[in-house]
Amino acid sequence: MTQLELVIPLRATAPGTDGRHLHPGLVPWRAAVCASTDACLLLSAETRIIAISQAGSDMLGLPVDVDHTRPRFLGSGLRFLDFTAGAEPLHDAELARLAPIQTLQTDALERSLMRLELRGVRRTFDVVASPLHSPPQLDAIGALAFFTPVGPA
Questions:
Q1: Of the four, 20, 59, 114, 137, which is 20 to 30 A from 84 by CA?
Q2: For the chain, what percent of residues have pLDDT higher than 70?
Q3: What angle do CA 143, 114, 3 make, to 5 degrees?
C-alpha cells in the first residue's frame, strides 16, 4: 500500500523542503511554547512541529524533542479519528479542517474538536489555533495551537 502525503495549499511559500529553516519571527514563540505549562504546540508555515510544551507532549504522546526531527503535524504519528462509533481514520479533506492546519490556510483564528487514538485509548480535544505574523510579511509564518481534553481521560 502506497502512503500519500497530504498536500494542503498554503498561501505562504515554505522556506525549505527539509524544515530545517526556522523563520526568525518564530524564535520567541518557540521559547514561549517550550516554557509553557499549557498543552500547546507551534507549527511552522509548512505545518512542521517546531516546538511542543511538556504538557502538550504528555497529552498528545509526542516526544518533547520533536523540534529536532520537525515532522509535519499530519505525519507526526498522531492517529486522527472521526466521531463515528467506529472511530475511522480521517480522510484528507477532513484532515485539512483540523484547527492547526486550517489556521495556516485561512490566516485566521480557528477552533475545532479533534479525536485521537493514544496508546489504544480514544481522546477528544478542543483545539484553538492562532496564526502568527511577522510584519511586514502579510501571510502567517506559523500557528500556535492549544489543546484542552474533553471528557474523561
A1: 59
A2: 86
A3: 85
Instruction: Indicate if the pLDDT at residue 27 is higher than 80.
Output: yes
Q: What is the mean pLDDT of residues 87-112?
A: 94
Radius of gyration of the chain (CA): 15
The confidence score (pLDDT) of residue 68 equals 83
Q: How crowded is residue 57: how many other Cβ atoms within 10 Å of its Cβ? A: 16
DSSP tag of 87: -
Q: Which residues contact 113 (CB under 8 A, 6 or more apart)?
A: 83, 124, 125, 126, 127, 150
115 CB neighbour count, 10 Å cutoff: 17
Residue pointed to by grid coordinates 511559500:
13
Fold of the CATH domain 26-150: Beta-Lactamase (3.30.450)
What confidence tier does 41 reach under pLDDT thresholds 50, 70, 90? very high
Specify the pLDDT at position 19: 54
**Partner residues linked to 146 by β-bridges:** 40, 128
SS3 assignment, position 129: strand
Judged by DSSP in three states, 133 sits in: coil
